[in-house]
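Appendix C. Worked example: TlpA family protein disulfide reductase
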Amino acid sequence: MAAVVVAVAVAIVVWASVGGKDTEKAKGASTTPAVAAVSAADRAAAALAACPQPTGAPVSAESPLRGITLECLANGAPVDLAAALAGKPALINLWAYWCGPCAEELPLLQQYSEQVGDAVTVLTVHSDPATAKGLSRLTGLGIHLPGVADPDIKVRKAVRAPQVLPVSILVRADGTVVKVEVRAFDSVQDIADTVSSELGVKA
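Step 2, the predicted output written as structure tokens:
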């Protein structure tokens, strides 16, 4: 009889433990991750380029970027992504502070941006709620590209990219997506060749 009581007690403990974890997971799935505040000092230290501004150029109704507004990493201002990028081709890079391949790729994107000039907009999208950590990572890497914070991974969802990083999105001047590159570029020439092939812009 005592053995039966012990077995029942153990079963209850195990059930409560598993049930508690499942409940926590359920709660976590329905709760948006908290976004820590970013200080003006963090933004100043990163010294990022200003985010692109709307030019009034038309945006295709088929652009997956329509309706997405994100926070500019440089100053915290809202950025209407489709409107801000309209008018010229763009390379949008999805990354996160904890991503090793992203840290290797970002300097290449910086060099490519300097090489291609105003012909292509290169925009980074920090795809993680820890915006302050993203800014700190950019500061440490010496990256000054314009960037936006995307804690809810709206861009990844909009272009239906897989849950991996880095991802680069090649966008036409009208906001339509040409290609989603699910890989890390390995050289500036690799970036230049890909953009030239997909968007027709040579660096």
